[in-house]
Amino acid sequence: MPELEWFDGGITAVPGILAGGVTAGIKPSGKKDLALVYSSSPARAAAVFTSNQVKGAPVLVSMQHVRGGVAQAIVASSGCANVCTGEQGMRDAREMTRLVSEALRIRAEHVLIASTGVIGERLPMDKIRAAIPTLVKSLSPQGGRTANEAIMTTDTRLKEVAARLEIGGRPVTIGGMAKGAAMIEPHLATMLCFVATDAAITREALDASTRRAVDASFNRITIDSDQSTSDTVFVLANGLSENDPLGPGARGLTQFSRALAAVMQRLARLMVQDGEGATKLVAISVRGAASRRDALAAARSIANSPLVKTAINGEDPNWGRLMMAIGKSPARVDAGRVAIAFEGELMVEGGTVKDGVRVDRIREIMRRSEYTITVDLGLGRAEDTVWTCDLSEEYVRLNSKYTT
Amino acid sequence: MPELEWFDGGITAVPGILAGGVTAGIKPSGKKDLALVYSSSPARAAAVFTSNQVKGAPVLVSMQHVRGGVAQAIVASSGCANVCTGEQGMRDAREMTRLVSEALRIRAEHVLIASTGVIGERLPMDKIRAAIPTLVKSLSPQGGRTANEAIMTTDTRLKEVAARLEIGGRPVTIGGMAKGAAMIEPHLATMLCFVATDAAITREALDASTRRAVDASFNRITIDSDQSTSDTVFVLANGLSENDPLGPGARGLTQFSRALAAVMQRLARLMVQDGEGATKLVAISVRGAASRRDALAAARSIANSPLVKTAINGEDPNWGRLMMAIGKSPARVDAGRVAIAFEGELMVEGGTVKDGVRVDRIREIMRRSEYTITVDLGLGRAEDTVWTCDLSEEYVRLNSKYTT
Fold first, then answer.
1. Which positions of A are catalytic?
2. What does the alpha-carbon distance between residue A151 and residue B133 come to, in Å, rounded to a whole number?
3. A158 to chain B, minimum CA–CA distance in Å?
4. What's residue A196's pLDDT?
5. Which CATH superfamily is domain B281-400 in?
């Protein structure tokens, strides 16, 4: 068995995890808009939330509920984010968790909640109250896809992954689902990601693994540099694999952490690929930086530059814009040392265009739907990578008329 | 006479200032691409350049030349920025200043230089050499417009202003010209701005006034959050007004400084109005901040948010995106205290939508080509304003195919 075996499936690929989704009527389109993930036994829970100072009511409620480190269900709605809705919004979010907990006969604090959609509108609680019995009935061991559908907003594709690994001779499964197509920048975005695993793991180790995995995945992508008020990552670990519990320093913990990060990276890339109006997934890899922080700063500056993103959209090898974006970043830069390559094909060296540069070859690379731009700052040994997409007319079209 | 009297005209409205422009053949379009501004006597000179770490050769040469505090000519080319062109680019920029100085019989260090256009290509020096005699002949006291035309790239409109004030009983004129339509963010952008005045002023006072004026104007606008490698502001003061020289603490210096800032603010707004694909000029005014720095940070976060800018484009009163942009900024924010108004029409109070909000009235305001969004953070007394434009499909169209 390879270290990590990917297979078709999502969150319900994990033993003991059921999921489902229904149309409550939050979305005017009549598409599914209420999702539920349920663990047959209480699971260790870890979470990471948006760092935006304006946080949605569901985020605030989940922050309280996850404090105990245990959860058994996640209820999520799409079409309305329940953000900037004042005290009533908090009451609505709490009521949703209470209704789910009563229907499932579990404790309300064991229900986590997330909502995504328009900011500033109240949830239609009458519709949600009416839908919760059907939602609970929709739970099934094959329900991962349905739940994923029910959290989509402008997403055009499902985003689910599943992987198996072996820890101390026991098979461990990790499955995840996510949504997100805009308001996405480093440090989380209008993105929801729910991951479950049957690994047995201590709370401390699960928290640390989750933070590291988010940092290596969702904190390394950008669609439009905007940051949602609702970003949420939940990880549930129900221990059904019966491996020796993974605590700090345990054999197998590194392996588990890496697998969790790999799962989130796949979901994160799916998000960028499905970025609003996006046609390209481009890895911006900065190396030769004076520090890791510099490498990340330079990569983010490139990945968020509208002029770089429009050039990627136009398949235009406009390396001057890359130099501009590097130079405006807070990273230490010596223009005369910068080298830039597209999939290994060198375009810039010593800060200027390479003699005999094969522009046709680079144009050919830029026509691909996925490629890597490597920037060598020539100053040190640190490196980091950020994934971005192009900025298209379609992005503007989609976003100039979202609420209307 | 009012404190500051605006009148039609530009840089050559200033006594002793001549300007001209010609087609050297740098732009394939055959449009004018070489400009010259000349002061009949050596003038005090101040300058502010891009803070991008990757600086064009013309910026580096001008930084050396302005060190002496005196200049008599500005030569500027458009169509090619002469950036990331290595040692040869430096030689080309120096040669341009030398050729101009020889033709004008002035010292080479008294010639300042700026170039704007594509990054990474060399200037066609043979064409420039051939054009300089004609360029010098084109100088005229009515040549401000022609010079302005010759520095345009994607600009669609001339950007020139002229104003008169009285200092110690003497009339003083300030005239300016500018270009810039993209790669524009706080801290300068692909923008050139040349201002002349006949005020007599000490070097120290001119430097300080210039820095303050740039900070209150070009450092308070954004088109696309990108930052050019060529941004340059030059101010020439030839003293022909024969006012008592304005030194630190002199009567009239505050008045002059304010006038200089007002001139640059007009030019800066013209730039945002002419932003690539822009259809709206919107002032983002943040008040009630805990500090000036916070006010500016919140204003910039809003002004640069792609989701806010697309909503402005769509005339969509999507106040949730404003809350999102405020919350992601480094400014101290308490969501429950935020109030937001469009031209004084209150939309949000206490962090949520106002009871009885007049959405139709706000939609009507958003249909205007110019308006102000006021955000009150409710935390203190500090305020600041940033001018921005919308993000349109046209911006993406223009920038996805710039070099090709």
1. 190
2. 68
3. 23
4. 86
5. ArgJ beta chain, C-terminal domain (3.10.20.340)
